């Protein structure tokens, strides 16, 4: 949701710069933040209530460094297939809606940027979008990796691979976000080039 809101921010900044203050005023920002937090809270509440209502019959020890839902479902004695499918459908619908909104926003942004006559103006407009596009690409690629890892057959499952995938999609994107967004800072770029 947050990446979708950021795409809308880029869209307004580039396609409707004169209306930026009215479209993204303090009230709109509060509503968007509340929507992101509320959606995240409701989505996690849905997962939590579904997961913790399952009876456990294989102990309570997970082979992970945090309590992850697919690993937790392996400990359940009940048939949790329909719960998993329901949660996956809700998550996919939410993610797909956000993805479509981001794609439509960037199509409009690229159309507006390509109409800018000066090359300096086009470069400046594109440079405001690059960090967000990199973060969205990173988030989508690690999410797809996680999805394929958890939808694979149990016969080819390995605890090491499960831990690696968990680290990949839960630690790598948040750790790289500050670096990606700060790469627009000239001093940081210069320091990085000197380090390399």
From TrEMBL:
PANTHER family: OLFACTORY RECEPTOR (PTHR26452)
Keyword Cell cycle: no
Alphabetized Gene3D superfamilies for the sequence: Rhodopsin 7-helix transmembrane proteins
Transmembrane segments: 85-109, 130-151, 163-181
Organism: Antrostomus carolinensis (Chuck-will's-widow)
GO MF, any single term: olfactory receptor activity
Membrane topology: Multi-pass membrane protein
InterPro entries registered for this protein in UniProt: GPCR_Rhodpsn_7TM, Olfact_rcpt, Olfactory_GPCR
Keywords: Cell membrane, G-protein coupled receptor, Membrane, Olfaction, Receptor, Sensory transduction, Transducer, Transmembrane, Transmembrane helix
Protein name stated in the entry: Olfactory receptor 14J1
Domain (G-protein coupled receptors family 1 profile): residue spans on this chain: 1-181
